[in-house]
Amino acid sequence: MTTVSYKDLGLVNTRAMFKHANENGYAVPAYNFNNMEQLQAIVMGCAESDSPFILQVSSGARKYANQTLLRYMAQGAAEMIREKNPHLRFALHLDHGDTLDLCKSCIDTGFSSVMIDGSHHSFEKNIELTKQVVEYAHAHDVTVEGELGVLAGIEDDVVAAKSVYTQPEDVEKFVQSTGVDSLAISIGTSHGAYKFKPEQCKLNAQGVLEPPPLRFDILEEIERRIPGFPIVLHGSSSVLPAYVDLINKNGGKLTAAVGIPAEQLRRAAKSAVCKINIDSDGRLAMTAIIRKVFAENPGEFDPRKYLGPARDELKKMIVEKNKTVLGSAGQGKGIFA
Ligand code: G3H
Ligand code: 13P
Ligand code: ZN
User: Fold this and answer.
1) Which of 46, 87, 175, 298 has the highest local Cβ count within 10 Å?
2) CATH architecture, domain defined by 6-336
3) pLDDT digits (tens, 9 = 90+) for 262-285
């Protein structure tokens, strides 16, 4: 496959957007996508809300979409953005990269940012691997996200049975020795729709399960040690009850699905957290609408009739999150105009 720089595709790395997010008390949304409808929803939702954003691709998503097609999808999205919101730019980011070779391959095929997730290795091995990725990436003006601490749940092929919070005393050495541009930390979030066991949660007055709060004390200590350094939160879907209910009402079976409350994410976004990862909420939004369409019209078989409404719902969710959770709505002009 021929190599291409993200700059030729009209993309940007994350440097300017993270600086702006840190200085202005919001977080840039990183929305995962695998297919055209998700891509349309992200591009249209962020263009409409004038939000800087990160198109996030896992290695599984890259295989699913096909890496050649993905490159043209990203280029197409960049051209679409110019039609809808001429000053807005976005980054194409590898989510949970696990090897140097994968990161290099993404950099060579148009990614502007990569994550090297060495969190499951020893501290020393994590530093060594992350440093190698940074050397290659920076030579191509690509930004790198590293990770310290392990989230509970599934990190692509890496399964972490329980959460290991980031040790604040590790962060200075990690950041200095590797040269990373941002750092993902573990303060109580986790991947997927089942972030907490019911016994970890309290039932509030409205009968809704309330999870334990995020460890803001750890976040504050990390900020004290590396002031102004861009921090990333993975596993930050709220697992919106309206979508879970709609899925269950229409034949689905999601029991005891619990996410991170929006207020906690908003609080994090006002701090040094300048990138918030959201995948599961988008999956739930689309699934809820697809189930509803099929329940109401079992004879439907035109994909546009169920994927179209699902895409529109995802776009609506993105606009709402950018405005009320990330605080990124309206910030695009401050960075790129
Ligand atoms: O953190 C993982 C993301 O949600 C991507 O998930 O590997 O199923 O694409 P995936
Ligand atoms: P959620 O599963 O909470 O959406 O997290 C997504 C994520 O962290 C992708 O890296
Ligand atoms: Zn993640």
Assistant:
1) 46
2) Alpha-Beta Barrel (3.20)
3) 999 999 999 999 999 999 999 999
